[in-house]
From TrEMBL, chain A:
<protein>
    <submittedName>
        <fullName>Uncharacterized protein</fullName>
    </submittedName>
</protein>
Automatic annotation (TrEMBL), chain B:
<dbReference type="GO" id="GO:0044569">
    <property type="term" value="C:[Ni-Fe] hydrogenase complex"/>
</dbReference>
<dbReference type="InterPro" id="IPR037148">
    <property type="entry name" value="NiFe-Hase_small_C_sf"/>
</dbReference>
<feature type="binding site">
    <location>
        <position position="240"/>
    </location>
    <ligand>
        <name>[3Fe-4S] cluster</name>
    </ligand>
</feature>
<dbReference type="InterPro" id="IPR037024">
    <property type="entry name" value="NiFe_Hase_small_N_sf"/>
</dbReference>
<feature type="binding site">
    <location>
        <position position="203"/>
    </location>
    <ligand>
        <name>[4Fe-4S] cluster 2</name>
    </ligand>
</feature>
<dbReference type="GO" id="GO:0016020">
    <property type="term" value="C:membrane"/>
</dbReference>
<keyword id="KW-0472">Membrane</keyword>
<protein>
    <recommendedName>
        <fullName>hydrogenase (acceptor)</fullName>
        <ecNumber>1.12.99.6</ecNumber>
    </recommendedName>
</protein>
<feature type="domain" description="Cytochrome-c3 hydrogenase C-terminal">
    <location>
        <begin position="198"/>
        <end position="267"/>
    </location>
</feature>
Length: 106, 320
């Protein structure tokens, strides 16, 4: 329960930051392994700073369509459907199904 | 009584170590129960120097019968096609291999190096290594694509890095007991009995594969290793999750991704940095799909499976 409450709090914080106009690096998307590695490296350097993590990962409150594919959290391999959580170790944040980030992978 | 000779080319001896750990049947069973006469083996042979040379010459001259010739390791051709980098018993190993293959009833290539070149043949391949009848996916190799042993079969390829001990001994027994003709081989000359199903067949993580829940760290018991950690189980032909290693485990069961070592391209992506233990993607979609699955179907299936996944699939259900 404590976990769920904490997740809700963090999700609310993320929603506020993004709705408040936080400029994130939505593009370029992580299209190949080199760009994935580069973004992950920057996330590790950012540590647990949520705001910096959102910027680096290119978070949005809506799905981003790229290469003809809608890249929403709900179809991403790191998304836990029931917990509504991104399990990518470098992010590990609560997310909503319709959010998106440039590290999306299926 | 079937005479068996085992030689090593460009090898790490991993397949010999694997062979010596065989259980069903064991290396000793080959001799005591199946009448196999091990003429010489790098770790078991008694003859040295001139005595070994004499025996090899008797084999190539046909005065001593060679029923099964097992080769481990690559055929080393360097420098400049001479094979001088790998000399054995007074001459380049490649010359022994060519002559012995001419007189052997059956030729068995054990391990990736002997089958398709394996790690030594990875670019830039300084030892000019090749497998007996393949170089990676290319048919031909050292002996040429038309080679057939005296029994009429091409080289029997038992790949793996290393090959599972029981794959080796069971094929050797089949050949030694006159059932070589029953062996059916796939397009890469692997016995179909072992190499038709996938590493994924029997994987304990299949539930997580089905519901698209990913493992994100090595050793994690929850989650599938294909999606993020580079597991090649869904597109690798091997029985690693049917004929278990040490009778109890496999890489994927221990939380490590399959590296696809029974396929000709191993090691994949020429070991470029960032390609090992990391699923390669193009715009977020795996570069290598599970065998027989296309990109569109994969995306549709993944979206549907994820939406339908039960809560338990996200939890560690293994309590011990």
């Amino acid at each position: 329960m404590a976990n769920e409450t904490n997740d809700e709090n963090v999700a609310g914080q993320i929603r506020s930051l993004l709705a408040g106009g936080l400029k994130t690096e939505v593009f370029p998307r992580a299209d190949d392994q080199d760009s994935v590695a580069e973004i992950l490296g920057r996330l590790r350097e950012a540590g647990g700073d949520i705001s910096a993590g959102l910027v680096i990962a290119g978070f949005t409150l809506q799905p981003v369509e790229h290469g003809g594919i809608e890249q929403a959290c709900e179809t991403c391999m790191y998304y836990l459907v029931h917990r509504r959580f991104c399990e990518l170790p470098e992010l590990a944040v609560p997310v909503e199904p319709q959010w998106s980030c440039r590290l999306w992978r299926i | 009584m079937a005479n068996l000779l085992w030689l090593q080319g460009g090898a790490c001896s991993g397949n010999t170590m694997s062979f010596l750990n065989a259980e069903e049947p064991s290396a000793c069973d080959l001799v005591t129960d199946f009448g196999i006469n091990v003429l010489w083996h790098p770790s078991l042979g008694l003859e040295l120097g001139e005595n070994l040379q004499k025996m090899l010459k008797a084999l190539t001259a046909g005065t001593l019968a060679l029923d099964i010739f097992v080769f481990e390791g690559t055929v080393v051709n360097a420098p400049n096609g001479t094979g001088e980098w790998n000399r054995f018993a007074g001459r380049p190993m490649r010359d022994w291999v060519r002559d012995l293959c001419k007189v052997a009833n059956f030729v068995v290539a054990v391990g990736d190096c002997a089958t398709w070149g394996g790690i030594p043949a990875t670019a830039p391949n300084p030892s000019e290594s090749e497998g007996l009848q393949f170089l990676k996916r290319g048919h031909g190799g050292f002996l040429g694509k038309d080679f057939k042993s005296k029994a009429g079969l091409p080289v029997i390829n038992i790949p793996g890095c290393p090959a599972h001990p029981d794959w080796i001994t069971q094929i050797v027994v089949a050949v030694a007991t006159g059932r070589g003709g029953d062996l059916t081989l796939d397009e890469f000359q692997r016995p179909k009995t072992f190499f038709t199903s996938f590493t994924q067949t029997g994987c304990t993580r299949n539930m997580h594969f089905a519901y698209k829940v990913s493992a994100t760290e090595f050793g994690q018991r929850k989650g599938c290793l294909f999606y993020d950690l580079g597991c090649r189980g869904p597109m690798t032909h091997s029985p690693c999750n049917r004929i278990l290693w040490n009778r109890q485990s496999s890489k994927t069961r221990a939380g490590m991704p399959c590296m696809g070592c029974t396929e000709p391209e191993f090691p994949f992506f020429d070991l470029a940095p960032g390609t090992v233990f990391k699923t390669q993607t193009v715009m977020g979609v795996p570069k290598d799909m599970p065998s027989g699955v296309d990109k569109t179907g994969y995306i549709k299936l993944t979206a549907a499976a994820k939406a339908a996944s039960p809560r338990w699939a996200e939890e560690d259900i293994f309590v011990v």
